[in-house]
Amino acid sequence: MIDPQQLDFRSFHVLSVVHRERSFSRAAEVLGTSQSMVSYAIEKLRKVFDDPLFVREAGRTLPTPRCEEVVAYAVDLIAGFDTIRARPAFDPATAGDRVTIACNYYERSFMIPPIITNLRREAPRLQIEVVDASGQGHQRLLDGEADLLIGPYRRQDASFYERMVLTDRYACLMDSAHPAAGRTPTLQQYLDFEHIFITYGGRWVSPYVSEIEAAGHSLSVALRVPSPAGIDRLVAGSDLVATVPRRLAILQDPSLAIVDCPVVSTIEVKMVWSARTHQSAVMRWVRDLVSRTIAGLA
Predict the structure, then answer these.
(1) Which fold would CATH assign to domain 4-85?
(2) How remote is the C-alpha of 116 from its chain's centroid?
(3) In contact, 82 and 276? CB cutoff 8 Å
(4) Third-level CATH fold of 98-166+268-295
């Protein structure tokens, strides 16, 4: 039995990276060390907690239930240490910290403008940067490239904290001369539309698409595009139909028609952050301001 007092922060950090990467070799690459050093650190933890922590199943490295508990503890432990090191006070009027927010087109279209306005008004010296999440938002948080992630994410991981900030539903955007304009289509009518399908670069699947596929249906796709940017100009004067979040649809060309999507699916927008900034005074303040600002959009 190893003396638990011989453990250090690095052992728990190694554990959290292996847990995230699901691979000893990839964890070694991320940490810039050898696989043998990673294995040594995990072996010490195994002896302390009397548990394998990771098992191999069907060629995959999977965490045990005990490992999930230890990782959650490690995240809080590291966050607690950051709290001790953090500056004791935060004054938004004088703070000059750098804050990076990761999000995508949907969030930038109507959430980010009022968020920036409020941040600039209440904390005029903050240095703010908005970066594209592009399916890598969680990794950006872990790598320290972003402090806050905003979007409809469904990832469950002990390494992250999250708060629901907004819900939305889907609508169909079409030309006002489209035969279906002005009324909600039936499911079959909807499936038969000439659809503009937004792929998001293959990094994310819209919830309504998951619902359609789960029911054994498929869309009649006429055009695939990587993002909703410029979607109104593609729809205008055509028989194409785009399924987009309603809050985004109402920002498009007002001459276009918007009707309810017959596929019932909710978009849950969350604010996500990591243990690195969980106890940060400036980021606690920023998260509260972001949450209040988005709530005001409802």
Answers:
(1) Arc Repressor Mutant, subunit A (1.10.10)
(2) 19
(3) yes
(4) D-Maltodextrin-Binding Protein; domain 2 (3.40.190)
Q: Using DSSP, state whether 132 is helix, strand or coil.
A: strand
**Domain covering 167-264 in this structure, CATH number:** 3.40.190.10
Is residue 145 classed as helix, strand or coil in its secondary structure? coil
Any idea where the domains of the chain sit in the sequence?
A: 4-85, 98-166+268-295, 167-264
108-122 pLDDT, tens digit per residue, is 999 999 999 999 999
At 250, list the tokens.
């109402």
Residue type, 205: V
Provide the whole-model pTM.
Answer: 0.70
Q: What is the pLDDT of residues 128-148, one digit of tens each?
A: 999 999 888 999 998 899 999
Angle (deg, nearest 10), helices 24-31 and 9-21: 120
Please report the beta strands in 14-72, taking only residues with DSSP state E, as ranges in sequence order.
54-57, 60-63
